[in-house]
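Quick note —
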Amino acid sequence: MHFHRRIFAALAAGAALVQGGCAGRASEPVEVAVAPAAPELMKWPDLLTRPRPAATATIAYGADPLQVVDLWLPRGRGPHPTVLMVHGGCWQTKIADRTIMNWIADDLRGRGIAVWNIDYNGVDLPGGGYPGTYLDSAAATDALRTHAARYNLDLSRLAAVGHSAGGHLALWLAGRGRLPRSSPLWSATPLPIRTVVSLGGLPDLEQAARPPGSGCGTEVIGEISGGRYAETSVPRLAPLGVRQVLIIGAQDKIIPLAYATDYAKAMRASGDKVVVRTVERTGHVELIAPDSAAWGVAVKEIDKALRR
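Predicted structure written out below.
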């Protein structure tokens, strides 16, 4: 597990980036209304210090140590509806790897859903960034075809779920069939994904590159995009032709609410079906905590996507 103290520092700094304030001068005393107390939001230790569930198996899709997938297989013979899961962490392996998703992966496994939880090299590692992070994510996704029969995974009932930066990658994976043949990221037969559930994602890289940016900052956007937004920023691939559900916390200080609403507006204009679910009393951590209201919303959307 690659969590460091910097995850807490980075997320705290991100909160400062997306909050603004103003001060003014008054010539006479003014009456100030006392705002209601802010909701008590989950912090990363609230999730990360819990006992961490273990996956059923770890499967390699390449030679690199991070080119692996954790499979969470439910009881029974199947065929199992399947979720392709993509972790976040600002596209940086030193901030997070796939195991940050273990708690919700285990929850889905207990509900009879198989989970294909992928890992990839982040921008902070050799082979990450553009094009490596995308090539890793695509190879991990396409490996589902290779292993589906062995584990009785039903790829006709497949949805993708991504958190934070993983929300961007999950949506990109659903839209990569629209890449031009000239792109190094092009694939002739990408695995079809019919529904994507993005949990506090930031799919529009061009928006995220503009100051003040998100909790990830703006510098990392140049590394993950390689400056090639036509291939990496999801709105540039519109229309995706898949159902997209964006779930975001009303009090998320890492990913601004506008990242979801602006994206939805643009994608709907292209003809895509996009739903935004805003969850009150919810920040960024709750989105991947299995006992949260936000995850309850996500499970309903996943069930709908898998036709359960």
